[in-house]
Write a structure and sequence with these properties.
Elements (H helix, E strand, L loop, with lengths): L1 H8 L16 E3 L10 E5 L4 E5 L5 E7 L2 E6 L5 E5 L4 E5 L5 E6 L6 E6 L5 E5 L5 E5 L5 E6 L3 E6 L5 E5 L4 E5 L5 E5 L5 E6 L5 E5 L4 E5 L5 E5 L5 E6 L5 E5 L2 E5 L5 E6 L6 E3 L2
Antiparallel strand pairs: 1-4, 2-3, 2-25, 3-4, 5-6, 6-7, 7-8, 9-10, 10-11, 11-12, 13-14, 14-15, 15-16, 17-18, 18-19, 19-20, 21-22, 22-23, 23-24
């Protein structure tokens, strides 16, 4: 798994994490459950998206070559990025799959995030890296450029936060695309997630730390000693789930740690609404 660190620290060979191939495959094995609160996990090394029930029971939801970023829209449809093939898939509540975007201005898509208007924001790190915006009518535009983001998250006020591993910072963007630096001092920021109180949590891949940043910008350490933390997601009870190879860790609001699942190579996490 050290190759993940090498990949994210150097963009000379971003596909070194993944098995080279010239095609993608998608096999849908089930619909997104109508009962919300299930955890969906992308496993890029195994080319699968897994679905976990709250009791830890797992099944394979879909096989997607180089699955990375995950996000749900307000209706409960799941969106998944295929990094190597530059494809974004949508999986409906009925289990049907369709392609939302393929190639074009979006190259090597990773993280995903929806705003309250239903626009899908895509972190992409190939040719012309930056953040793309896909409107509900599927029109694609460039939101910001000149950064290589790995994680995206919206706050309650509609500001988009992004990690940039070129500068090892967390950036904050207004709806018009105006950006400012929100936080610095990371070894390698990977993903972002907000809790219900508006605190921003940041996974630091290299240092094995989860940081907590208050709305006023005060940064503190929430958890240390992790292996290589990537994706972050909060459940309805305010527990933080962390993709930390080869485990998925669960942290209660007071920081108590437990292992929710193990034996996979988790990349991104998302809870069904």
């Amino acid at each position: 798994m050290l190759v993940v660190i090498n990949c994210m620290k150097s963009r000379t060979s971003p596909s070194s994490l993944r098995t080279a191939a010239f095609w993608a495959f998608v096999l849908v094995t089930g619909a997104v459950t109508a009962m919300g609160g299930n955890l969906f996990v992308s496993d890029a090394s195994d080319s699968k998206v897994f679905q976990y029930r709250p009791d830890g029971m797992r099944h394979t939801f879909a096989s997607v070559f180089n699955a990375e970023g995950l996000a749900f829209d307000a209706a409960g449809n799941l969106y998944v990025t295929d990094f190597n093939e530059s494809i974004i898939y949508e999986f409906g509540l009925n289990g049907k799959m369709r392609i939302v975007a393929s190639g074009g201005p979006i190259s090597d898509p990773s993280a995903l995030a929806f705003d309250t208007s239903g626009n899908l924001f895509v972190a992409h790190n190939g040719a012309g890296p930056g953040i793309a915006k896909i409107a509900p009518d599927r029109t694609i535009s460039s939101f910001v450029s000149h950064l290589e983001p790995t994680g995206l998250a919206f706050d309650a006020a509609g500001y988009l936060f992004a990690t940039d591993y070129l500068s090892n910072t967390v950036l904050k963007y207004a709806p018009d695309g105006t950006g400012t630096t929100f936080a610095t001092g990371f070894g390698q920021p990977a993903d972002l997630a907000f809790d219900s109180a508006g605190n921003l949590f940041v996974s630091d891949l290299v240092d094995g730390i989860i940081y907590k940043i208050a709305p006023d910008g005060t940064k503190s350490t929430f958890a240390t000693g992790l292996a290589q933390p990537l994706g972050l997601a909060f459940d309805r009870s305010g527990n933080l789930f962390v993709a930390d190879y080869p485990n998925i860790l669960e942290f209660t609001p007071d920081g108590t740690r437990s292992t929710f699942a193990s034996g996979i190579a988790p990349w991104d996490l998302a809870f069904s609404p």
